[in-house]
Amino acid sequence: MKPSFLHLGEPITIGQVPQDMLALTLCADRYGEPSKSMKIEKVDVPSELNDYEILIYVMAAGVNHNAIWAGRAKPIDVLKNTQRLDRDTRSYFIPGSDGAGIVWRVGPNVTNVKVGDEVILQSGYLGPERIIRNSREPLPNIRAWGYEVNGGTFAQFTRVQSYQCIPKPKHLSWAEASCFMVSAGTAYRMLCHWTPNEIKADEPILIWGGASGLGCMAIQICNMVGAKPVVVVSSPEKKEYCKKIGAVGVIERTAFHGWGKMPDIEDRERFEQWRKHVKAFRNAFYEALGERRNPTVVLEHPGESTFATSLAVVERGGMVVTCGGTSGYYGNFDLRQLWVNQKRIQGSHFTTREQCIEITKLVSDRKLNPCLSKVYSFEEAVLVHQLMADNRHPPGNISILINAKEES
Ligand SMILES: NC(=O)c1ccc[n+]([C@@H]2O[C@H](COP(=O)([O-])OP(=O)(O)OC[C@H]3O[C@@H](n4cnc5c(N)ncnc54)[C@H](OP(=O)(O)O)[C@@H]3O)[C@@H](O)[C@H]2O)c1
Fold first, then answer.
1. Dihedral class, residue 146 (left if φ above 0, else alpha if ψ from -120 to 50, else beta)
2. Intervals of CATH 3.40.50.720 along the chain
3. N or C: fewer beta carbons within 10 Å in the chain?
C-alpha cells in the first residue's frame, strides 16, 4: 500500500513512493529574503513520469544563490515563468540546482540508469523533447533546473530528465556528491572553454570571491593547468582558506574604496579618484602575484561592484568572463579600454552535460576536491540560505542533508 508520508530518512523500500513529501517552497505571497520567502512544507510527490523522466530519492542538496534569486523574484519571477512556459500548475516553487540521490523510478524509455543507481544531478535543462531531437546540446537554450525550471533538489523526491543523471563516484559521501556541480561546472567552462582565452600554464588569473563556491573550484582548476590564481576576498579567514587550497596570492578587497560603477568621465575629481583606485588595485595584484603582470583572464561574478575594475586591470587581449551579478546587474566601463587594448567580455552560463561528466571524472580521480566545508540538516535550510544572502556563510561549498541521515 502507498504510504501517505515518510519522515526524513525513514526506512523505505526502493521504488516505494509516498503521496506527500517535505519540500522547501517559495510562494508568490512570501517573496523576499530567504527568511521570509522560504518554508518547509508538505507537498505532493511528482507522480507521472514521461518517457525519459526519472524520479530521484534525494539524499543531499547543494546550496547556491539560485534559490535566493528565485525567492526574491528579482529580476525574474521564476514561479510565474514556469507556470507560463511549462504549463506547471503548482502554486509553489521548489528550488535546488545541485543534488545527489538514488534512482527510484524510471520512465519507459530510460536506458542510461536503472532503479537503485546512485547519481549526481546536473542542472543544465534542455527540455524533455530536446534530448530526443538533438543528441548534441545547443547551450544557448540551456535553462537552470531548480531555478528556471520548477521542482529542484530541496525536496525528498525530485523528477529529472534522464540526461541530468551522472553516476556518483563511489568514494564521495552524499553531501560531497551534492555540493559541487553548479560551481565546478560553471568555473570550468568560464576558465577552460572560451578559446583562445582559456587559461594557460604560467598565466596570472584574477578570481573574485576566492573562498566562494565558484572561487574554490576556480583556484583548483587554475592549479591543474599550472596557471597562477590570484584571488580577492573580504576577510583574513577567507584569505587563509584560499592559500590553503592553492591560491598563489590573495588581495583583501576591504582595503579599497573605488568599487561600483565608473564615474562620469566629465566628473574630473571622481574620475581621478577612480583612476587611483584602479592603480592601487593593479599594484595589489602585482604584489600578490609576486611579479608585474596583468591577469589574462578575470573570473567575474560580483558584477556591479567589480566589473569596471575587472575590465580595467585585465591584460591587453585578455578576457573578463562573467556568470553573475551578486552585487547588482548594472556594469559600466570605458569603451576605449575595450577596443584600444582589444579586450574581450564573455558571458558564460553553467555548462554542458559533457563538461559535467569531465568534472565528475576529475572529482572521481581525486584531482578536484569538492571543497565541502559544512553540512546542514534540512531543518536548517532557510537559515543557510539567509547566511548566504548576507555573505556570512562558510567558505567553499555547502550541503544540506535531505533523506541522508548523516554524512557518511
Ligand atoms: N550563471 C551561472 O551559471 C552561475 C553559476 C554559479 C554561480 N553563479 C552566480 O555567481 C555568483 C557567485 O556564486 P557562488 O556560488 O560562488 O557564491 P558564494 O559562494 O556565495 O560566493 C559569492 C562571493 O562573492 C563575493 N562577493 C560578494 N559581494 C561582493 C562584492 N560586492 N564585491 C566583491 N565580491 C563580492 C564574496 O567574496 P568576499 O566577500 O570574500 O570578497 C563571496 O565569497 C552568484 O551570483 C551566483 O548566482 C552563476
1. left
2. 183-347
3. N
Farthest CA pair distance, the chain: 76
Determine what percent of the chain falls in helix, strand and coil, rounding each to the nearest 5. 35, 20, 45
Q: What are the distances in angstroms from CA 60 to CA 194, 199, 394?
A: 32, 32, 18
Grid coordinates given for 197:
582565452
Q: Does 97 score more than 50 pLDDT?
A: yes
- CATH code for 20-180+370-401? 3.90.180.10
- Looking from the CA of residue 183, the nearest atom of ligand 1 is 6
Q: pLDDT tens digits for 40-55?
A: 999 999 989 999 999 9
What are the pocket residues of ligand 1 if the criterion is a CB atom closer than 6 Å to any ligand atom?
64-65, 182-183, 186, 208-209, 211-214, 232-234, 238, 253, 301-302, 305-306, 323-324, 326-327, 349-350, 388, 391
CA atoms within 13 A on the CB side of 7: 2
Grid coordinates given for 94: 521548489
CATH dotted code for 183-347: 3.40.50.720
Query: Do 61 and 120 meet the contact criterion of CB atoms below 8 Å apart?
Result: no
Average pLDDT for 241-267: 95
* φ, ψ (nearest 5 deg) of residue 167: -55, 135
Q: Give the H or E element holding residue 100.
A: strand 98-106
